[in-house]
Amino acid sequence: MRRRLLQSLVPMVIILAVVAAVPLANYIATSTSRTLFLSRSNDADWFATMAESPLQSGDIASLRELAVRYHQLYATPVFVVDVDRRVIATSRSGVDVKEPDLKVALDSTLAGRLPAEPAALWPWRSGEMVVARPVVNNGRVLGAAVLRVPTEKGRDQVERGLLLLVGGLLIAIGAVVIGIVRPITRWVLRPLNDLDNATHQITRGALDTRVSTDGRAPELRRLGDSFNSMALSLHQARQREREFVADASHQLRTPLTSARIHIEGLSRLSPTARFALSDIDRLGRIVQRLSRLAGADRPGIEAEGSEAPLDLAQAVKERLVGWKAVYAADDLELIIGEMVPGGVAPELEVDDILDVLLDNAAKYGAPPVEVSVLRDGTEVVMAVRDHGLGLGSRDLKKVGERFWRSAHHREMPGTGLGLAIVRSEAARVGGRVVARPPIGGGLVIEVRVPLIDDYED
């Protein structure tokens, strides 16, 4: 019965999935093409701005050098034409403005209109994407800046998206088939309900749950025995895990205490030692959390009371002791601004957050770097400011996104995860991260966390 039902329903589900996949595939290709087009449009706009003065003065040597450097850096040919379609500056020779795709783009651009977005990228199509922007002065078109954007990576991305789509459709087909067949066959499989309920009990942590195997069919009895054996193994593994965490946290306390005593003695002589002392304290807090975790998982053991609020200003000042030495070693200036005491959640990882912000300021910004802690209504604000180039309005909205990096810093080492970690740490205690351009230039990253009302200075 189940086989016959599957033979009639599965083809229908497949047809419906294919019908649904066509617009989704088109969306993937169109979206990838639009993203590539918009990203390169910003570069074309920049070239159009840079070409305005050379087109008027006739001094195109610097413009040609910019085109060559851009081509070498991004593997994207670029050229600039005047209003008569003469190539003024190019990153590679052999540009033919009469090529159909170039002619269409230049017809629109030199007429003062932005060219239409290119067609969707499909893996089986080849060729370059043309991105053109007019060079305008006082409303008069002087020429056009044109990029011939390679599309191999975009087409590879579309191919991966289509493969994921096919995989998702296969999973969806399986889910639909199971969802239709299950109600029909449920009455046949009623003896398995006990096993299903027991599984849910185990997922909720009741590892001592067992199923009865009395009076069952041989197949179900074997399944029940296997389930009970698995539940017993899980229960024993969890017990061993609790014992390991408890023993490890207990064994770590003594060497950590000893290490702290020795480093505390050295901290009177060296700021770097005080920096290490704060790391020892942080490791100690981790061990305490492990100990509480092991205790909280044991029945009949209550968790310890909540810790006292953390003075954010004091925690920042202690961490800055080590960072001042790091900055001084690199001939960078680190300024400690106003430090207003304010209580925050004790689980806020201040050291981790400050390490990311100061490391980013040193790598991507410019000195001096200023750190301050202020109160703003019901929030305590830790702000790190540098005096670098800052970020544009579009980039400011993307700060904290995973793997995002500014176009000015993509050639520098990094993963694009630092600020995402900071945002996650702040959100864990109900806080947020704000990036803004300060007066005088540069960039300010603010970590805003709730102020604990009952905190006493």
TrEMBL record:
Main localization category: membrane
Domain Histidine kinase: from-to ranges: 247-453
InterPro entries, alphabetized: HAMP_dom (IPR003660), HATPase_C_sf (IPR036890), HATPase_dom (IPR003594), His_kinase_dom (IPR005467), HisK_dim/P_dom (IPR003661), HisK_dim/P_sf (IPR036097), Sig_transdc_His_kin-like_C (IPR004358), TCS_sensor_his_kinase (IPR050428)
Residues of the HAMP domain: 186-239
Catalytic reaction(s) noted: ATP + protein L-histidine = ADP + protein N-phospho-L-histidine
The organism's place on the tree of life at top rank: Bacteria
Single GO cellular component term: plasma membrane
Subcellular location: Cell membrane
Alphabetic keyword roster: Kinase, Membrane, Phosphoprotein, Transferase, Transmembrane, Transmembrane helix, Two-component regulatory system
SUPFAM superfamilies: ATPase domain of HSP90 chaperone/DNA topoisomerase II/histidine kinase, HAMP domain-like, Homodimeric domain of signal transducing histidine kinase
MF annotations from Gene Ontology: phosphorelay sensor kinase activity
SMART domains recorded: HAMP, HATPase_c, HisKA
Enzyme Commission number(s) from the entry: 2.7.13.3
Transmembrane segments: 161-181
Protein name: histidine kinase
Organism encoding this protein: Kribbella amoyensis
